[in-house]
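Data availability (excerpt). The following record was deposited with the supplementary files.
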Amino acid sequence: MSKRDYVFASESVSEGHPDKVCDRISDAIVDTFLAADPMSHCGCETLCTTNRVVMAGEVRGPATITHEKLVDVARTCIREIGYEQDGFHWKHAYIENIIHNQSADIAQGVDAAGNKDEGAGDQGIMFGYACRETPEFMPAPIYYAHNILRAIAEARHSGKAPLLLPDAKSQISLHYVNGRPERATSVVVSTQHDASVDDKHVRELVRPFVLKVLPEGWMCPEEAFYVNPTGRFVIGGPDGDCGVTGRKIIVDTYGGAAPHGGGAFSGKDPSKVDRSAAYAARYLAKNVVAAGLAERCTIQLSYAIGVAKPLSVYVETDGTSQVDEEKLSRVLQDMLDLSPRGIRTHLQLNRPIYARTSAYGHFGRHPEPDGGFSWEKLDLVSQLQRAF
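Predicted structure:
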């Protein structure tokens, strides 16, 4: 039996965190290729440190996308995030591009040919999750941790918070009673700031964003509200800490409230099931919970490189299901073709929609008119309700 009374914590990081700078650049590269050719293939990684960026990986796409073009893409990402600091500046950073063509051995396993359908871009297991803790069917700790940093970023970009700089982290611990979150026991926000302000000033700059995001009455005791616990955070971003693509996979998903298969999303085109199958699993789990068939739903998919169909489909509702789980698994597989091609087609993933996913979570977002966050749609709810 699962615990009913406990404290659970999740963290988030801002778009200016060094790892997220790398995720943004890698996903912008994916978008650049997909905008030129929706069937492009990308597996790109980025590293950033003091005024230096290194991009590496494998691609297959139009020759019109030159090395110089990708360097410009990286500079644009850094500028849009807001880095114009001595130690990391969009205009002055040295950007090295060593991206090369995709291996022919991988291509022959992934591509469709003759009677062979398009295969998975790699082996692995992927998880999707949904619950009723928030209107967006996300675990509450990661949901509020994301929203605090997003609110600060919006104020920074609009000019309303000029003393707060791009690099930031948050962490929220929530007290659950009878399985439901009721209040925060602690809140931690560390944010890079201008050298002209002290720690007390930064604390009061941050406080309104926390109060705005948390539900009324959820704020933690004053002694458990930590803002820049070290006392100073002026040197930040890649100048303060090296960043690498794919190091914030728990931040990207469910904040530790659900399993993670281990694969990162950023820098990968949707033929890579690390990304597309994780989106599909979230899509199915969210629709199950929204349809009222369970309070919580975890879905695991497994794949082998070059093989189209998943090797296994596992559905778990933690004892909250209103229906037979075996039947639920069969119905879900009938509703969505879980091959790489089927997922890409149903969710229309071969579009330049990925740079926006690189910060503040890939899940719990709103579907967008151009197809962004299509995996957050609730268009299977009525079908699921009819099926049961």
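Summary of structural features: Residues 250 and 266 are 13 Å apart (CA to CA).
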